[in-house]
Design brief:
Strands 1, 2, 3, 4, 5, 11, 12, 13, 14 and 15 form a ten-stranded mixed β-sheet that branches. A five-stranded mixed β-sheet has the order 8-7-9-6-10. Helix content is 26%, strand content 33%. α8 packs antiparallel against α9. A hairpin with a 3-residue loop joins β3 and β4. It has 285 residues and is of the alpha/beta class. One of its GO terms (cellular component) is cytoplasm. GO terms for molecular function: prephenate dehydratase activity.
Amino acid sequence: MTATIGYLGPKGTFTKLAVDKTFNGEAKHSFSTIPACIDAVNKDEIDIGVVPLENAIEGTVQLTVDYLVHQVRLPIVAEIVVPIQQHLLVHPNFKGELSDIKEIHSHSHAIAQCHQYIHQYLPNATIHFTSSTGKAAELISKRDEPVAVIGNQLAANIYHLNTLQNNIHDFPNNHTRFIVLSKQKEMVKIKHPIQSEKTTLLITLPSDFAGALHQVLSAFAWRKMNLSKIESRPMKTGLGNYFFIIDVNQPYDDVLFPGVKGELEALGCQVTVLGTYPVYQLDKL
């Protein structure tokens, strides 16, 4: 049975690039927003959803985390790490100089990844945010004006845009983590070597008290469990109320993780496994 895969679209996004490199031959559907893609998996309109989770320069995609925690709980079944190259793209009829650009359009994370470049070379350009880099490219392709989009080479090819300048991101080690969501893990078939395995936990505290985070981390530390990420996010129930997202660099087992869960629950914490999954690293797009 062939799986149907959804991604943050339209065509020309980095998510689409990641999906094309990871999955072969499956039917693919684009969605205009991250929540729309997640909802489609939850409603069984598609089998698999791929959405961005974190960028090495800009950090966590908060919309993805908050929607998975507060709105729709779906298991994370895989992670795809891909290199990101941001280019400055313009309409093919644009013949001016870099200083002639009046507007820059792109996703907020793409803009943030190129802050220093914009500050140095385009300080007077007005910034406009879009739902994705692909959407920005689609909009600019219809405007024969001195405007630019920050996006990738796929977007340039699809929407027939010219590349005014290559690799404008501020730091060379620019990677993004994409998570694969599915109710049916067996349908996710990725033919790339597994780089590592990871388990993501959602932990909520009963209340804010002195040493709370220390007690949580101690449950992992004395078991010698390596944590690659700890992040707090507001519970949206009032100021000072937070939950923690913790990534553990090992798959879920029947000894260590139940021990951690029991120890934290004894402290009054709630522990939810958001996923235990393989991590795939793509060398290039």
